[in-house]
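Morning, I've got a small favour to ask if you have a moment. I've dropped the whole record in just underneath, so have a look.
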Amino acid sequence: MDVFDKLKILTDAAKYDVACTSSGVDKKASAGGIGSASACGICHSFAADGRCISLLKVLMTNACAYDCKYCVNRRSNDTPRASFTPRELAELTINFYRRNYIEGLFLSSGVLKNPDYTCEQMIEALRILREEYRFSGYIHAKAIPGADSALIARLGMLADRMSVNIELPSQSSLQLLAPDKSKHSILAPMGYIQNRIQENSTDLVKYHHAPKFAPAGQSTQMIVGATPDTDFQILNLTEGLYKKYKLKRVFFSAYMPVAENALLPAMDTKPPLLREHRLYQADWLLRFYGFTAGELLDGNHQSFNPYVDPKCNWALNHMEYFPMDVNRAPYNDLLRIPGIGVTSAKRIAIARRTSALNFTGLKKLGVVLKRAQYFITCGGKVADGLKITQDAVLRSLMSETAFGLYGQNLPEQSVPEQLSLFEQPSLIQSGISREEVQRCLTGQI
């Protein structure tokens, strides 16, 4: 099998890994090196449908010793298999970068032979990039659960960001669908990575030029919809991961049926994309708005309302806190008002120091009054002509499309597709051909 065929198989097999993340690290190439990474993000190019195409997202191999029932690369699945050699992967990456097709590398892998062997192959590919090609661009590497800590340590010194996929939110789901994995094999490397990252700001702080372990932090991914786990369980686990392991991000991936199994949703089940979206919104509230998982959901309400975003849903269920006077409410309380975000809350806190705010002033500060007006007063007064009824508030908080669907089943959604190197729109609008890959491998730039 030539490299072009490998590339088709292994980029397609990698599409289930979420990689829409900014770099989180500032790094420029040293003299004679190439590539760079910016803390504000490495994403500069987008396909015609809006998907970011800045990373070469690929697997080292899709041959896997594990038999996770939800995974397209599982051992028992009849699918074409391929494996890159470390040299092939490094040369593809560096030549794609030189041709301005990519900004960095997102590398994951199936478990070939065993976790240690797989990790060694990934390390060698990154070593060639970093040491032989002196590539200073962004690299995100997936740690292999079960690999020796010494190998995780070496991988973390070569990558900018690391991640360990939890995949399933509960131990019972893991035992049922991924019997080859265990909670310990996933959380142990996550804890080790966190301890090593902590050293970057403690033990190494006095050695400014010392290499750092995964300087852009670590993240994880959970599959949503493959198991009966509720939003409440997922959100509580998310909150715990942020607190214990100081993760940069928790990603959610709507389950797309790829295997016929009695333990999984039927093959014609549509991916729960709206549920994934609501979890991302709730994740934002945990990280930037001061909410806790227990406030957004509880034992009696374990799933989000799909028609209203989590913040609005919380406000509707806690009307005892409203209306708030924007001229007096503390900053943390302002963040809980629908229609007021972090930026507009900061602007309100600054502007009200010099003069009392009215509704016209709030609109100029960026407040979305269509939602906020039902939950605020200005100097004790509500908006002129406003009649607050349950239907009016609900309609205001919903999009027009959502309101039209309220009380009905959601329409069928088309199966989402992720970026492919070989289909339109692609990294190159004309697609990457076999000859193009061969030219990259031979350095004919």
